[in-house]
Amino acid sequence: MTIPPALQPPSRLLLGPGPSDAHQRVLRAMATPLLGHLDPAFLTIMAEVQEMLRAVFRTGNMLTLPISATGMAGMETCLVNLVEPGDKVVICNGGFFSNRMVDVAQRCGTHVTEIKRPWGGVFPLDEIAEVVRRVRPKMLGVVHAETSTGVLQPLDGLGELCRETGTLLVIDTVTSLACVPVELDAWGVDAAYSCSQKGLACPPGLSPMSFSQRALDTLHNRKAKVQSWYLDLSLITQYWGQDRSYHHTGPITSVYAIHEGLRIVLEEGLENRFARHRRNYKALRAGLEALGMRYVAPDAHQLPQLHAVYLPAGITEELPVRKRLLETFGIEIGGGLGELKGKIWRIGLMGCNSRADVVYSLLGALERVLSEAGLGIAPGAGTIAAQKAYSAAG
Ligand SMILES: *Cc1c(COP(=O)(O)O)cnc(C)c1O
Question: 0.90 exceeded by the pTM?
Fold first, then answer.
């Protein structure tokens, strides 16, 4: 065989639903030489990662750690550890990822009651409360930031409801963590999972997760062993907990990456970070609307870090536009999933990509590509709208 040339990936701006660009400092941290996974110096780094994760999740939960795999493994970890065959589970299902949670819960042998909404819908507390009080499930599953639709689901009142009914509250924060407030303790969340490649601006490969004391008690009182060996938290905590004994080889470089990613989040400060995401959201939104795009989610429940927008009138095929953005401008955006496939674009402004220069680059490129596609767009229509939004915000 001929040996392929050394890697030389094209330059890209990653504005899809994830992965998002990794911060330069994170990439540099990843070039740090390896340590052994039980080296005392590495154990210190692990402990620091856990402490920083608690700060970012706003929790005192001892069991807070990154699972050595992507966000879906975090979802699977929460479910396989907390539920057993025959358990009752309620899931709010209004998008692609909540639909996956239903699938995972069913694979665990549970009886799932779905509260359904058309994609893009938001679940009102009274509707969730009615079902949870009637079914009395062991677990309620909610996707906080539904990346397929751009919806931010409010979680107010769910913690109290779940305590009243003896239910565990499990939330997907894969797209919300470090972009919008996530308050595990204040909200009474029992289990949450996230990922490294969205708001934390690290490469994919880790899934930070956290278990409350109630969740831990549930784990300890299981009737049967957790079916998955790799994701069994009672085993994983032998490595990430007090014992620090071998379970699997820690992914050293990924842990270096998240260590630096979390340091960056905490240096900026969570409130500043959320405000930055909101500021750039408003500017991008003004620009996209000026270019004729409408949002899937209701205004009051729109995520600042993920814009799911319908194709503007006059564009019938979404793929050629995305292809042109990628090939000519090096910008990646996402298409729709499931029932929104072919109908929307999904644009991420997450982590270090939530910046004014990124907003202007994307809007400038979109103006050009959409004009070429035949839309009568005045030059500067999008970027001027963004500039006005930034000025209005002061
Ligand atoms: C991205 C995403 C996931 C899946 O994460 P992976 O890292 O791709 O495994 C799960 N839930 C939501 C809401 C997501 O946006």
Answer: yes
